[in-house]
Amino acid sequence: MSNPGQISPLRPVTRHITGHDAAGNAIVHSSSPGEWKSFEANDMAFDVVYTTSHFPADLNNDADLKAHEKLIESNQLGLVNPRGTVCRIVDFAPNNQCVVHRTQSLDYGIVLEGEIEMVVEEGEPVRMQRGDVAVQRATMHGWRNPSDTEWARMVFVLQDCQPLTVGGKVMKEELGIATGVLKPSGNDQ
After folding, report:
1. How far is CA 42 from CA 49, 90, 93, 186, in A?
2. pTM summary value
3. Which domain holds residue 72?
4. Residue-wise pLDDT tens for the chain (189 aa)?
5. How many structural domains compose the chain?
6. Residue 51 counted as domain residue
7. In this structure, is residue 12 part of a structural domain?
8. Neighbouring residues of 110: CB distance < 8 A, sequence distance ≥ 6
9. For labeling, which of 20, 39, 92, 147 is most exposed (least CB within 10 Å)?
10. Closest by Cα among 60, 61, 63, 50 to 17
């Protein structure tokens, strides 16, 4: 059984958001299935689990929930949320095309299922297995599923960062072949 929009055969994802009742007790605020969007001719699918629009996040009066819902409804989220964070799950088809790109962000990428090759500009791809973590620091990079038959899944937490300058050059967001397919984040102005 898959969720609407999910293209991979991997187990569906359910998001559980916690909160507090009027007495201050912890509760489950909501549970909902993943909402998948496919890219690259169904070679990749994204599910935005949650976003924050400020860092640190404001949880008072559910301000973070309201901001997340407003951002998702606006359909304006790029890969990065300026001044905030994004938690996103990505499913990769076997032998998917590697989309090399740069985000103006500090990202944690964790392999949940399968194997992934992390590709950077210099050096050999790094093979990552389930449980491995990449700390991606505004570098040109890409992700490739090297399997001929199995899908792979990663979870990414992207955090906006200060503008990065290396050797006098400002490292701006570059979407590569995804330009025009993915919305620009707008955090590198």
Report:
1. 19, 12, 8, 26
2. 0.91
3. 35-178
4. 345 556 899 999 999 999 999 999 999 999 999 999 988 778 899 999 999 999 899 999 999 999 999 999 999 999 999 999 999 999 999 999 888 999 999 999 999 999 999 999 998 999 999 999 999 999 999 999 999 999 999 999 999 999 999 999 999 988 887 787 778 888 877
5. 1
6. yes
7. no
8. 131, 132, 133, 134, 154, 155, 156
9. 20
10. 50
d(CA 129, CA 125): 13
19 located within any domain: no
**N- to C-terminal Cα separation, the chain:** 43
Cβ-based neighbour number of residue 179 at 10 Å: 11
How far is the C-alpha of 155 from the C-alpha of 145, rounded, in Å? 14
What CATH number has the domain bearing residue 75? Answer: 2.60.120.10
Per-residue exposure over 69-91, b if at least 16 CB sit within 10 Å of its own CB, e if not: eebeeeeebbbbbeebbbbbbbb
Question: Count of residues for the chain?
Answer: 189
Joined together, the tokens standing for residue 133 give 């973590």
Q: Is residue 4 situated within a structural domain? A: no
